[in-house]
TrEMBL record:
It comes from the Bacteria. PANTHER family: IRON-SULFUR-BINDING OXIDOREDUCTASE FADF-RELATED (PTHR43255:SF1), IRON-SULFUR-BINDING OXIDOREDUCTASE FADF-RELATED-RELATED (PTHR43255). Residues 310-339, 382-414 form the 4Fe-4S ferredoxin-type domain. It comes from Cellulomonas oligotrophica. Pfam families: CCG, Fer4_9. This is Fe-S oxidoreductase.
Length: 740
């Protein structure tokens, strides 16, 4: 037997063993992941409608929608992603080349479109993966850096060894493909094949020509060696990932397809806006207003990893550790311990370690408490899997969900864990205890009496009708004005309420309010995990709204807007709900509101920077009306670097409005500094929570810049100290209203 013959035998033997081991170990990894995911609770509705989900899957995967803010990374990752299925054909070819070095796949082996695709993706894949490796190396945190600087890297906490294994595998495979194409060209030329031309080898013939003069045995030997190396590298990767079912940086290329398909919103929207309902062990929504009907052993929320729905476990298994969520998280950016990525990884590792015990206990049918394995029912917070400061730092702003390229639903998981802590363990921050009590007894988180809900209207030069007193039904007016708790009780928010009322009155819009018939929508309670209190308040409000015949509702609070429009339908309340910026924008377009031209000293107007509230913008995609209103008022908008869907949170969401920030910087102060840096003379908001938090942040920023205490410690007073005014868009519009 010739030397090439012996080499062929050795290569085939190595490849056969590697393939059997690689496919076997990889299959074992698939089984482990599937079994872990099946530990989770049922979650109905995540497989249908198939048509809409498949369309969304194709759009999200092929379009790489979540990479829009990073165009270079988007292009590189897109190439690497598609190179996997395209270059898989070369893996199949490699097996044939071990038997016959001149082998080509039947039918498509020398089909020009396939050959062009293979060569294009091989070269582009080489450039793309090299670029991604350079990016990772340049932006990774280094031990020599201070902790604060390390945290600024989105790769902080990621497993670099795993990432480099994946990247090295891709690099070696694409290099092997390029080399093999050149060798194939040389063999084809020697054999006088009709496809031995630049048409069939458009990007490799140029260097394949250099090998044409080599003897046949040498060319065949090199084909055998390179094909073997390519297959061995591929099978080694299969072994590595099969032994590491938690290696999300590798497994996401398979799991992401399922995760995107099973997303909460089949039409493609992120898992924002309404929260998923509280569910029982069978995945059915729970009605806590009928608490007496609940079984004694019911577990409310997610206390242990087995309480997660299967989609939640698929989420954590899919995480690719890219850190985009961490990069956008306002809590992490201000020195708090919450990183959506690290939280996801902690759940992933705990699920992988716990799932076998859960399966074993279920298989044994353990019912007696003494029989239950100690790994069952492990409290995620009490056991230290999730630190309480991590859990309660979340503002539910949704930046993590918006940015995640594989559709992980972080906010739903965090709130589900909060539900267990609040409802089952009564383990929540001390400040929330008083807030819950005030909401339950007084119907608002400030604890003020309902009779004060109309105090904001005192001094207006027109009457504000109350449904049930001045008008019989809400159907008798154009809009029911939902004032909200902040709009009724918080002084800065009262300015917004009065301004909206004045603008509606000036536009000839008839409206009425509920007065003391209003109560809190329940948003803070729900996002703090107190689902029982939320459901009580929601049922009360829906009953009131339905009784008064509410059909069209306008609100000033972004949180009320989200709750009434997106969450109340599940409680039986379906209404047309507009945020005040949407309604005012319509009135301006209709010519019912006009503004005086130019109010600045130079007659050109004021420069304003606009802060996108999370629950108006990111959660509900309302970005344009506020900006159109400012343009209509003749002001110049100076955008902050983080705006629209990448807007930075004010820090008030997720019930954080009623919790002190004792770790790191205040989120509102960081956002205020960003706003001040634009040089704008005013900061426009569209949510009372944002007005309060950014207003306090501007004052804090000014105090830090003026150590002589030139800025009072209370509310900001811009006119006296020369710092930007913080006001709702409605206030700015009201002050510019053309009353002629």
């Amino acid at each position: 037997m010739s030397a090439v013959g012996w080499l062929q035998v050795v290569c085939i033997g190595l490849v056969v063993v590697a393939t059997v081991v690689g496919v076997g170990v990889f299959t074992r990894g698939v089984v482990v992941i599937v079994r872990t995911i099946r530990v989770g609770r049922p979650l109905p509705g995540r497989w249908s409608p198939a048509g809409a989900r498949l369309r969304t899957l194709a759009r999200e995967v092929l379009g790489h929608e979540r990479f829009r803010q990073r165009p270079a990374v988007r292009a590189a990752h897109w190439v690497v992603m598609l190179s996997f299925p395209v270059l898989f054909l070369t893996l199949l070819t490699g097996y044939g080349q071990l038997v016959d070095p001149a082998y080509g796949l039947p039918l498509i082996g020398h089909w020009v479109p396939v050959e062009w695709a293979v060569e294009a993706f091989a070269w582009l894949g080489l450039v793309a993966i090299a670029g991604l490796v350079v990016l990772r190396v340049r932006t990774r945190p280094r031990a020599s850096q201070p902790d604060a600087e390390q945290r600024r890297s989105r790769f902080f906490g990621s497993n670099f060894a795993w990432a480099y294994v994946v990247e090295a595998t891709i690099l070696l495979v694409v290099v092997a493909v390029v080399l093999l194409r050149g060798l194939e060209y040389a063999l084809a030329v020697q054999d006088g094949e009709p496809w031995a031309s630049a048409l069939h080898f458009p990007l490799t013939a140029w260097f394949g020509q250099a090998w044409v003069g080599a003897d046949r045995a040498t060319l065949e030997a090199w084909v055998l060696v390179v094909a073997t190396v390519k297959i061995l590298v591929s099978m080694s990767w299969f072994v590595v990932v099969g032994l590491q079912p938690t290696m999300g940086v590798a497994w996401h290329r398979f799991l992401a397809v399922v995760n995107v398909y099973a997303r909460r919103e089949p039409d493609g929207g992120p898992a924002l806006g309404p929260l998923t309902p509280l569910r029982d062990g069978d995945g059915n929504p729970l009605d806590l207003t009928a608490v007496d009907d609940l079984p004694d052993d019911v577990r409310l929320g997610v206390g242990a990893v087995e309480d997660l729905p299967w989609k939640g476990l698929l989420d954590v298994a899919t995480c690719t550790e890219c850190g985009r969520c961490q990069d956008q998280c306002p809590a992490w950016a201000t020195g708090k311990p919450l990183s959506p990525k690290l939280l996801t990884l902690a759940l992933r590792d705990h699920a992988a370690a716990t799932a076998p015990y859960v399966r074993a206990a279920r298989a044994a049918g353990a019912t007696d408490e003494a029989q239950v394995d100690p790994h069952l029912g492990v409290d995620l917070v009490a056991s230290g899997v999730i630190d309480p400061d991590v859990l309660w730092s979340c503002t539910t702003c949704g930046a993590c969900v918006q940015q995640c390229p594989v559709d992980i639903e972080h906010v739903d998981t965090i709130v589900d864990i909060r539900r267990y802590q609040s409802l089952m363990e009564s383990a929540f921050p001390a400040e929330l205890g008083g807030t819950f009590t005030k909401m339950e007894r007084r119907g608002n988180p400030w604890g003020l009496p309902a009779r004060q809900r109309l105090d904001w209207a005192k001094g207006l030069d027109f009457d504000v009708p109350v449904v049930g007193t001045d008008v019989e039904s809400a159907a008798d007016v154009d809009w029911l004005f939902w004032v909200g708790c902040a709009g009724a009780f918080e002084d800065r928010a009262k300015r917004t309420t009065r301004a909206v009322a004045e603008l509606l009155h000036a536009a000839g819009v008839t409206f009425a309010v509920l007065g003391d018939g209003e109560t809190c929508t329940g948003d803070p309670a729900r996002r703090a995990g107190n689902e029982a209190l939320y459901q009580m308040l929601a049922a009360q409000n829906v009953e009131t709204l339905n009784e008064v015949g509410a059909q069209r509702i306008v609100v000033t609070c972004a949180h009320c807007f989200n709750t009434i429009s997106r969450e109340y339908p599940a409680a039986g309340g379906r209404y047309e709900v507009l945020h005040h910026t949407q309604l005012l924008d319509t009135l301006v377009a209709e010519g019912r509101l006009r503004f005086a031209p130019g109010t600045g000293d130079d007659g050109t107007g004021t420069t304003v920077t606009y802060h996108d509230p999370c629950y108006l913008g990111r959660h509900n995609q309302v970005y344009t009306p506020p900006r159109d209103l400012l343009a209509a008022a003749g002001v110049t908008v100076a955008e902050m670097p983080r705006n629209r869907e990448t807007s930075f949170c004010c820090g008030a969401g997720g019930a954080r409005m009623w919790m002190e920030e004792t770790i790191g910087e205040r989120i509102g102060t960081v956002r205020a500094a960003e706003a001040v840096a634009t040089g704008a003379s005013a900061i426009a908001t569209a949510c009372p929570f944002c007005t309060v938090m950014i207003g306090d942040g501007v004052a804090a920023h000014a105090r830090a810049s003026a150590p002589d205490d030139a800025v009072p410690a209370a509310a900001p007073v811009p006119a006296q100290v020369g710092v930007p005014e913080v006001a709702d868009i409605a206030v700015l519009l009201r002050d510019r209203l053309d009353r002629t």
